[in-house]
Amino acid sequence: MANIINTVKTRLTAKITTMLLVALVFALMAIGYTLWLSWQLEGAAAAINDSGSLRMRAWKIAAIVNKTPAGQTLSPNDIQDITKIRHAFEQTLAELHSGDPQRPLFLPRQKAIQAHLIQLDQDWQQHFAPKLDQLLAGKIFEQYTSQDWQQQTTTLVDKIHITVNLIEKEYARQTFWLRSSQMMLIVMALTGTLVMVILLHLMIVRPVTNLHQGLQQMTTGDFTVRLPIEGQDEFSQLSVGFNAMADELQQLYADLERRVAEKTDSLEQKNRYLSVLYDISQHINRHQSLEELCRNFLQRIVPEFGAAGGTVRLIDKNADRVYLVVDEGIPPSLSQQMQCQKLGSCFCTTAAKLGKTAINNLDSHYSPHFSHCLNAGFKVVLAIPIQTADKNQGIFNLHFSDNRKFNSEEITLIETLGQQLGIAIDNQRLTSHEKE
């Protein structure tokens, strides 16, 4: 049983077959019920006709009895007619009790109808049949015989009439249910058709449409499209395969885009670095004073790397100190402290002494040596040596107010700029010395 349920859940053909079988079962049940009702109605109509014939036969017997004068007996013809009518009356009563599927003839099963028919049969057997036997046996009619028979016949016919009315009411009730069943059958047909259309749309049309739209989107280069997975049928398996294919294509395309973007960014960055290096080299290699040289250098490099400020300091080896040449964007209080410092007295002068590039993230240090930079609002300080191949001339700093990160290519570029500045300073000093 579990395998059957699982098959219905996972197989589209099983779903459609089950759906059609359920619709067929409901249709057969509805049609069968209406057929049964129509059969009952046909049997009830026959019961109404037969019950009505009892009244006719009772009145025929009464008419024959009433025409016989007092002091005489029934004539042979009358006896023969009454015998036939009696036989037909009793046979009809028996058929109403037993029913006849061949006609068909069915007396409704309501207790009131059954009780009235039993009472009618008892009245016939207890009152009419014995007296009728006497008349048929040659009993002489008395003056009150016709009147008495008329009264008894009226009573019997009234009871038959009540029974017929009850059968007719049941017939009307069954007719109502037949009409209602037929209306329900129409509603079921319309509802079933609508449900079938909806289910077929959900199970077949929509998955095919989704697959078609997904393929169209993918042909336009949209590899983010994914199909919804509903259930475990064949279309769901197709959706799983489509999504797996889309994932693979998207990954391949993303890798390709990423590689192209990386190469493009790398080329753009290298071009930018070359442009910066060329531009700054062009500005610092012009004929100018040392202060102008360093200021032009700072004015170019500070905005280029998004720094909040910068300084250029040179080493006085005779005094073992570092003195400030120019600054850009540095608060006066901090600039004053940087005018002349001993080598190795702070982070920046230590970098100048060692001739190595250093990055100081001030937020991660709590030494009082960094308090003046922290108070000035700086979070990162980059120290780059100014040097040539044979000597260390000083250091320049870039101060950042945010947590700036540097990649290796940026550090290499900045160090190259430091070397260019060192060469330019060296050339400027040689020129000044020659003039002297």
Verbal overview:
By secondary structure, the chain is an alpha+beta fold. It folds into 3 domains: 2-202; 221-284, no CATH class; 288-435, Beta-Lactamase. The chain is 69% helix and 9% strand. It is built from 11 helices and 6 strands. It has a 6-stranded antiparallel β-sheet, with helices on both faces. A hairpin with a 4-residue loop joins strand 5 and strand 6. The longest helix has 75 residues, at 145-219.
What descriptors fit this protein?
436 residues; alpha+beta; Beta-Lactamase; six-stranded antiparallel β-sheet; 6 strands; 69% helix; rod-shaped
Ordered list of secondary-structure elements with their pairings:
Elements: H1 2-10, H2 12-67, H3 76-98, H4 111-136, H5 145-219, H6 234-284, H7 290-304, E1 309-316, E2 321-328, H8 332-337, E3 340-342, H9 347-354, E4 358-361, H10 371-375, E5 380-387, E6 392-400, H11 408-435
Antiparallel strand pairs: 1-2, 1-6, 2-3, 4-5, 5-6
